[in-house]
Structures
1.
Amino acid sequence: MNTAIEVKNNIWWVGANDRRTHRFENYWPLPKGVAYNAYVVKDEKIALIDTIEQGFLNDYLENVETLCNGASPEYLVINHMEPDHSGSIKAIMSRYPEITLVGNTKTFPILNNYYGSHCRTLEVKEGCEICLGSRSLTFYMAPMLHWPETMVTYIAADKLLFSGDIFGAFGTLDGGIFDDELDLDYLEEEISRYYSNIVGKYGVPAQNALKKLTALPIKTICATHGPIWRSHIADIVARYDKWSRYATEPGVVIAFSSMYGHTEKMADLIARYLRAAGIHHIRIYDTSETHPSYIINDIFRYKGVILGSPAYNGNIYPTMETLLNELAHMGIKNHYVAFFANKTWGGGALKHFKEFAETIKWEVVDEPCEAWGEPKECDADHCRRIADAMAAKLLQS
Ligand code: FEO
């Protein structure tokens, strides 16, 4: 059945909702699913803009064939090679052997490695145009958003931007495809989690792309995930600007690991002292319970981070080590940090926290506190000093 929806002026959405994949990139949780958005531009010539994840191939091909109505598409524009968008390219190459694949110098090596070569390709550079008849496609490079080959496609006649992953979101499109048709409150965390988890490592490229793209007149943004933006463009652009500048709010994320409750007790003490010192936004996460996806998302929002772990076999607790590795890998900037630990034998967590602090280069607000089993009065005093130092930093900044 044809499920295509017209975006505007014979530009069609041919995407799909995925509620069966539970981890994006086999890592990031998808409690509300995800949408893969692909598009068809019908003019004197027909252009496909990206494809779709392989599992939805049959529906995608049916939509494309129905829209083409016996004609062959002239172009397949490959804005991004990640398989959630390129997964149906091989089928398109096979179904339409005369189609021209449009990409840039970094697209085709990935294409060849993934799906084999195609006889008709067109390499475009920044600002190149392809005329479809009454309108043209213009291409702008957007490297690292979120792979090196990423580019975006703009139609000046419609003031419409095919933005790839930029301005994307987790979450399926329930009941509509446009931002003004969807419950954005319901999707809010999925929008920010998509940025922080998938694009968040690339703040500088995101700033560069925003400067370039926001200079264009834009009435519609067709991202490859999440809502099509037409009524809240200024809002989503402002959010991307804030996130990619690592601008934060005065709150604290406390992430802890705990085997028997001693380290968790220290987390609760610090939280109460933070509240007493005037901090309202406090989030506590157990790293054994909460996936790093959600903790990272809140760390993108709040400037203060306090991390606690027991020693584990002379080392740091495994789920805290995972979180530290993920944070270091993402290279999030501009935070205050403090640490607390607990030991039964010789300790082990503090060494890792020290190495993490040297790697991430966040400002450490106080000496780490290490308790021995049940926290004592002296440990509570130290937790209070950490909370007070963190609060002072946040409230003065
Ligand atoms: Fe939605 Fe980077 O692919």
2.
Amino acid sequence: MLTQRPRGTNDILPGDASRWRAVESVIHRTAARYGYGEVRTPLFEHTELFQRGVGDDTDIVEKEMYTFLDRGRRSLTLRPEGTAAVVRAYLEGGLAAGSQPVKLYYVSSPMFRYDRPQAGRYRQFHQAGVEVFGTAEPSADAEVIALAVDIFAALGLRGLEVRLNSLGCPACRAAYRDRLRDYFRPRLDQACEDCRRRFDRNPLRLLDCKVDRALAAGAPAMTEHLCDDCTRHFRAVQSYLRALGVRCAIDPGIVRGLDYYTRTVFEVVHPGLGAQSSLCGGGRYDGLVEALGGPPTSAVGFAIGMERLLLALEAEGVTLPKPAGPDVFVAAAGEATRGEAMALTARLRREGLSAETDLCGRSLKAQMKHAGRLGAAFAVVVGEEELARGAVVLRDMARGEQENVEIDRLAERIAAGRVAAGGASDGEERPEA
Ligand code: AMP
């Protein structure tokens, strides 16, 4: 028990963390290019926020939330998704009062859902997402979809499909719901238990049934029953996407699990991922801000599953930077110079290099072996004799060459060697030469 993590959770160990960082930095850079500002919200919120914001009929609220009473007997819930919390922050932070649109994004935010774990589905997982508030224009829907596609493209992912649908507005959806009920009513005995229960309140959810897809296959499509305004909006989104060079397929089966969507809904899927092929889901949610107590505010956004994104990168064999070894390992030639070795390591770090030294009391020979195992580009040997002359021995680990170098010129010499070899400590930052 003590040495086992809870079911459905994952550790991200250093070997993987560098892959996560590489993906996160692409998302930060892409969001910045599009002018989105980062938002970070608490891991837990008042339970009611998700009940209202995600919807009582959803799988999430019905059976997946981690809800608990705190010591003050308030009902709190670990965040199962990002949108409701970002809407709350938008309202509470006064962003609704400023100039619109407000374009926000988040990266690697932990989410919690009590679901049956399998490959690509976890109880704690991470999402990156964006939310744009204050515009009902179809150009915003198109920008958001293009941003998701750009993130995937910047990472080198291919083989993705963008699937688009419209759920209409409350007006045209009401009539469509009736048509759906007419379609499903005579087939209800073939539907699963959840679907039978949802038939009256939310027949759209029957289109999204994970148990039996065949039943929904012959159902009428929402896109055939949109009102004029929703038809215009849907066409405009597609035309902007064409202008942006984003290819997408219309898929009437995309209804998304959450109650709050209006008009545009979309998913980005990676067929290589099997059952959990959805990398990203999103859409427009023009009624949510008001439902959560704010002024009427149109909004559109998406969430990308970080774990699935990493799985897709792996499935496509996209290589992300692996953790590089340190620029330099500082070895003490003997007991007498251990203190100096530590001080020199600290100095090299201040001078912008990644530097390590021995923390295990190893012999010089064992220290050099350890430097090799760490993948250090250089090793420095701090010996009493050289130290007396203000110098150390510098060893280029790849070439096996050694030279005496003055301590004052050491950082410069190592940095120049690293630049010449085309590498640096973390593959991103390079010390100034
Ligand atoms: P959703 O918030 O359900 O619209 O999901 C958005 C994205 O988050 C999905 O496309 C998945 O990539 C990811 N996702 C959702 N649920 C899970 C889960 N339980 N484990 C891992 N990733 C998930």
